[in-house]
Specification:
Blueprint lengths: L16 E7 L13 E6 L5 H9 L17 E6 L4 E4 L10 H17 L3 E9 L6 H12 L3 E7 L6 H18 L5 E3 L8 H11 L6
Parallel strand pairs: 2-4, 2-5, 5-6, 6-7
Antiparallel strand pairs: 1-3, 3-4
The protein binds guanosine-5'-triphosphate (GTP) and magnesium ion.
The site of guanosine-5'-triphosphate has 23 residues, from helix 1.
Length: 211
Amino acid sequence: MNPNKPIYHEEVPFPETSFSTSISKISPETPLPEGTLLGFIGRSNSGKSSLLNSITNRKGLAKVSKTPGKTRLINVFSTKAGFSLIDLPGFGYSKASHKEHKDMMNLLDQFLNEITSLKVLFILCDAQRSFPEEEVQMIETATLKKILPVVVRTKIDKLNQKDRNAIQKEMEAVMNELGYPFPLFFVSATTGKGIGEMRKFILSKVQTIPV
Ligand SMILES: Nc1nc2c(ncn2[C@@H]2O[C@H](COP(=O)(O)OP(=O)(O)OP(=O)(O)O)[C@@H](O)[C@H]2O)c(=O)[nH]1
Ligand SMILES: [Mg+2]
C-alpha cells in the first residue's frame, strides 16, 4: 500500500454533539448557544437532518423522514468543542407556492440578520435536481452578510459518474454567473462519501475549546 495515498474513507473524529434547543421564530431575544454557529438550509427532503446525523455520527440526533417538511422548527445541536450546528426548516418543492418561497427567503433573511455568530451557511441541494435560482440568491445573500456560503450536493450515491460530471459543470456555471467561487461538497449520508471532508472543513472553520 502506498503510504502517501489518502485513505478513501478516512475516519475524521467529530466532537460529541447533542440537542440543545428548538426555536420557532427568530428575534433579537432568541436565546442561542455561545460560540460559532453553522447553519444548514435546503429544500424539504434535501437531506439536512441525515447529513447532520452523519457528520456528528449520531443516527437519531436529527429526525429523518420520507415525508417532506419533517423539520418545522429551527433545531440547535451543540458540540462539546463549543460550536453549534443549526438544522433549519426545509422549504417547499419547486411546486410550492410563491408565498412559501417568499416565507422561506424571509426566514433566511431574518436568520442571517439576527444571528451574528453565524459563520458558515451550508446550502444543501439534492444532486438529482438542478440547482435552483433561490439557492443562487441564498449564496449571494450570505456573501453580502459576510457569512461563508458552502454548497452541498447531497445523495450523491444516486448518481453515476456522468451525472456527477454534469453537476460539477452546473456548479461551475453558477460560480461563473456569480463571479466568485464558493466551497462545494458532494456527499452521501448513505455511503459516507464526502462526510470526512465536511468534518475537516467544519473543524477548520471553528475555534474549538479543549474537551
Ligand atoms: N439515497 C440517499 N438518501 C438520502 C440521503 N440523505 C437523505 N436521504 C433520504 O432522503 C429523505 C429525506 O432526508 P432528511 O434528512 O429527512 O431530509 P431533510 O432535508 O431534513 O427534510 P425536512 O426535514 O423535511 O426538511 C429520507 O428518506 C432520507 O433517508 C443520501 O445521502 N442518500
Ligand atoms: Mg429535516
